[in-house]
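Marked as duplicate of an earlier ticket. Keeping the data here for the record.
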Amino acid sequence: MYIVGGLIKTMAGEDIRNGWIRIQEGKIAEIGKRDKKTFHPAPGERIIKAENGLVMPGLIEAHCHMGITEEKKGMEGDDCNETVNPVTPYLRAIDAVNTMDAAFDDAVRAGITSAMIGPGSSNVVGGQFAFLKTRGRRVDDLIVKAPAAMKVAFGENPKVNYSGQGKSPSTRMAIAAMLREELTKAFAYREKKQNAAQNGEAFEEDFRLECWLPVLNREIPIKAHVHRVDDIFTAVRIAKEFNLKMTLDHCSEGHLIANELATEGFPAIVGPDLASRSKIEVQNMAFKTVGVLNRAGVMTAVTTDHPVSLIQSLPLCAGLAVKSGLDLEEGYKAVTIHPAVICGVADRVGSLEPGKDADIAIFTGNPMEVFTRTLYTIIDGEVVYEAGANE
């Protein structure tokens, strides 16, 4: 299959006007400029004519709860938080994601081809996120990376949930202490396992601690729910204490400490700025945060935090960030290559380059503009949405 014409935004340092992309076996095989010397489709091969459209990598949602908090399902469809135990690292998002949730179809129609999905923020440790494609019925077939991150949460959410139950954590001190305690146990477990292996001794794996090893080995990050400045710095403090990779999710007051965060070097996934300021810790939430952090040197991605704001609003959230000061090109990056890098999957998605997954969106124009329509969504080389055909 070929995509021909339009403006190709590769997000790999080059825009190609009136070019072509060859897709083979679900991957991008070639990209080039359109001329007779290089463009040779086989007889009968499908050609998608982008004409005046914008061709770019499929959009990426870096933090959401799509399919794990289902729309219109109430408690029966809400599997986001196991709110009886504040430390549950062994929970796996893939065991609760319902791919039949309508949000997946909304994502595809918006040109969103992949998403980081996982537990909510009611627990100090919520469980394991997974990075998934957005089209398919069996979640196992959608996995790009699982586990992809370990969810931890600071601030109001775990505090409010457990103080109401009359047990810890009821303060920010307890949240930090419980996370430190869990990490200390996990490091001790890893050491015992390593010593047993070196000595040729039998070792009984502990299911509740084994899940920490990819985090401790820096294969995946902790995914820190943080809004307020003090919570952001506590997350940074703990990540540095235990030498962990980390993403700062929401980071609502990040614009107040942008230079400090740039020095620390942790990336930020900002949002959901389209939602209301429904609690005290988000009182300084604003679309300007993305741009302020980005200009300071923090790698930033935009999130809807679906269903807090709807998944299909992702490109519009990036547009509103641009309206509030984010550079336009950085707006494109905030929903493509930056979330791919932040989520640890840039070898597969996030830019249009030979060898990467053929996850491609074709729009009538800039997807950050409200009147722009999605013409085609392609995942793993398969057309999963075509305007008109899917209406």
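See parent ticket for discussion. The first strand starts at residue 2 and ends at 9.
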